[in-house]
Design a protein that fits this description.
Layout (H helix, E strand, L loop, with lengths): L1 E8 L1 H4 L5 H9 L3 E2 L4 E2 L4 H7 L8 E10 L5 E11 L7 H9 L19 H21 L11 E5 L6 E6 L4 H22 L9 E4 L5 H13 L9 H10 L3 H14 L4 E4 L28 H13 L10 H34 L1
Antiparallel strand pairs: 1-4, 2-3, 4-5, 6-7, 8-9
Helix pairs in contact: 5-6, 7-9
GO cellular component, one term: P-body
Pfam families: RNB (PF00773)
Protein name: RNB domain-containing protein
Amino acid sequence: CYRIGVHIADVSYFVQEQTPLDNEAAQRTTSVYLVERVIPMLPRLLCDRLCSLNPNEDRLTYSVIWTMNEEGEILDEQFARSIIRSCVKLSYEHAQDIIENPNKDFKAEDFPAISNNFSVNDITRTVSELYGISKILRSKRTGALTLNQPKLQYQIKTDSKMPMSFSVYQQKESNRLVEEYMLLANMQVARKLCSTDRIHDKVILRRHPAPNTTTLQNTIKMLTSSGIKLDGQSSNDISKAVQSVQDESAKKLLIHLLAKSMQLAIYCCASCVPDSNYSHYALNVNFYTHFTSPIRRYPDILVHRLLGAVLDYNDNLYQTPGALEQIAQLCNEKKMNAKTCSERSAELYLAVLIR
């Protein structure tokens, strides 16, 4: 068996309810990512230092810890406030190197400094085992739908901040490894919160409605005339149709067309929508929330406070369900604004390059 933990910075310890810091974060609701800089939701002292899980330093966290077998089945699950001390700060590139070269004889100089008496072999073995289980977890998420649109990334001059070149962002296996455990943590926290009666009416969920029927049916008709069979009854059906297309250019076009019929995922307060509307269409799960990014998303801070209430670390949220629904709607609005701002920033830099 394996003991696997997802440890997320305990931002709610530093951002206390009804303080000026909390009020400011509640107004911002999200960090904004531009090409050349990030406008953070929280002060840099928290983002870069106190809430950054730096190696060989004690850090306050909320942890979801599972005991799993080799088939990725959860045998035991724990939720807790914790103090962790990580042993190394690996980049996605480091993890990708381990995944792509399982038989490579890695040396200490191939990685950042490793502390707490862990060895290079400990690091490479752990990454390899986590990767193996993550693939099993992904295969078990039957019906989950991923429609990733192309995203540009830029190489920027340090002094002038002007773009030198751009490339299309490629998601690699190391990204998928981390994503799989983040998804699992979010799903399990949502399940834990929704199964606790005394806080159920205040749970902040991330729900994803089913596609716009008219738009989807029009897309299906067009695809049928091109020889692609799709009935669109479920996210699983759409996912299978996408995977059945072998030509990469055709697959990208199909993803683009299907994405147009998809509705946006939104935040909501559980008691303000019918139980039947809790589900997340793309992930094909009944409950989902955001728990894993409290440094850059305000809903995650609320979810941490809710989990703290379930675990008797703190009181329940002071806001009424109606007030929480208003906060959720503000988060939806600000998230869309931040997304638009990020896209406009990327378009501006592209225009500079191709002028």
